[in-house]
């Protein structure tokens, strides 16, 4: 028993040393860059102290999210390279993925949806503050977004409704480039086709596994009821019974997702998020530049 534990520890240690060598080599540096924390354009403008703090702190947190994602992608890439060495030994490959990589993949697959929602929510709040700073007739009120009497409870809006509110807040400026990048993030092709709806299923149901293992092998579906009907020539055809449905059970299940395909898809989402960040920050800088300097 002790000998087996020593062998297992030696195996994990060797794999981790291989990972560190690849991670330190910086193979992905040409594609993945950390964002800088340059927010000086906010400081000298005549923005209310709370508004100024809100804009800077929110931008810093978005930068933190993207930099953390960048770091996780570097780690994921290095572990993919290590695990490729062990493809002929599926048990060892699975052990390494479970021990070192599974949580990294899980966190990365949640970020595209998270960062899109963050851009929308932060955009509503930040550009509202900017409008307050340079338009004295603009009221400190976001209709459909702010809690209302009598309960003053938070309003939980879906993404489409928040997008509409963001457009209304932004109507004072040219936001088309920002919205083009925003809408490209976490699109249906990425969600359903490339990741098997992993993020949504992981939150609310049973998500597909990574690399190995089939889940939900029995499928229950609602289908249109049919019957066999004799044709004039004596043959039979299946025809629909209008207005009726039936329950069908079948074997199928969700196939495992390939971690290398997932990585490439997630990397592309990261690049989209960086483009969105640049447009978001550019729009902040452009609109803030219209605000007079503090006296």
Uncertain stretches: none
Physical arrangement of strands within the biggest beta sheet = 1-2
**What Rg do the Cα atoms give?**
26 Å
Oligomer: single chain
**Largest sheet composition:** 2 strands, antiparallel
Order of helices and strands: HHHHHHHEEH
User: Mean of residue pLDDT?
Assistant: 90
Number of strands: 2
Q: How large is the share of residues in beta strands? A: 5-15%
**Tally of helical segments:** 8
Distance between the termini: 75 Å
- The best one-word shape is flat
The tally of structural domains comes to 2
- Helix share bin: 55-70%
Structural class: mainly alpha
Summarize the SSE layout with pairings:
Blueprint: H1 2-25, H2 49-84, H3 90-134, H4 159-169, H5 176-184, H6 188-194, H7 198-204, E1 218-230, E2 236-251, H8 259-288
Antiparallel strand pairs: 1-2
Helix pairs in contact: 1-2, 2-3, 2-8, 3-4, 3-8, 5-8
Walk me through this protein's architecture.
This protein is mainly α and 295 residues long. The chain folds into two domains: 2-212 and 256-288; 218-251, no CATH class. The chain is built from eight helices and two strands. The protein has helices at 2-25, 49-84, 90-134, 159-169, 176-184, 188-194, 198-204, 259-288; strands at 218-230, 236-251. It has a two-stranded antiparallel ribbon. A hairpin with a 5-residue loop joins β1 (218-230) and β2. It is flat, with a radius of gyration of 26 Å. The chain starts with a helix and ends in a 7-residue tail after the last helix.
